[in-house]
Amino acid sequence: MAKFAPLAAILVALLFIAHTTAYRTIVTSSERQSRSCREQLQQQQYLNECERFLRQQCQSQSGRRDTTSEHKQLEQCCDQLRDMSRRCRCDGLSELVSEQLGHLQGEERREILQIARNLPNECNLRPGRCDSEIRSN
């Protein structure tokens, strides 16, 4: 029995080290993921490319249409959304719509809201729609 005591102590020490390392790895990755949506939105320049795309859509509905430019603007918006975490995309779009496009009224507002809700789907991102986050009021 006395021969096994040092071996048991070494085994316990190794288990403790392994557990501590695993805990530190989990905490570190959790901290990375918990970067606030606000920080992500700032890093993505408040989704300025998505704002440009949505404004372009307003102009398109008024009769001025440039599909090449629209496609390029959509791609740039998608890049910004792609660089945000899944849980922050809709919150960012909601903030964009309420703060930057809040002045829109009537049919124009309804159409832009619909386009904004569907932007993640247009970009092949999840969640596909932002129905609950982007409201019409």
Summarize the model shown.
The protein is mainly α and 137 residues long.
Description of the structure:
With 137 residues, the protein is mainly alpha-helical. 72% of the residues lie in helices and 0% in strands. The chain is built from six helices and no strands. The chain is elongated and about 90 Å long. The model has no long low-confidence stretch (mean pLDDT 81).
Distance between the termini: 75 Å
- The rounded Rg comes to 24 Å
Instruction: Please tell me the overall pLDDT.
Output: 81
SS field, number of helical segments: 6
Uncertain segments are: none
Biggest sheet, in brief? none
Shape: elongated
Helix-strand pattern: HHHHHH
Alpha-beta content class: mainly alpha
Number of DSSP-assigned strands: 0
Strand content: under 5%
Helix content: over 70%
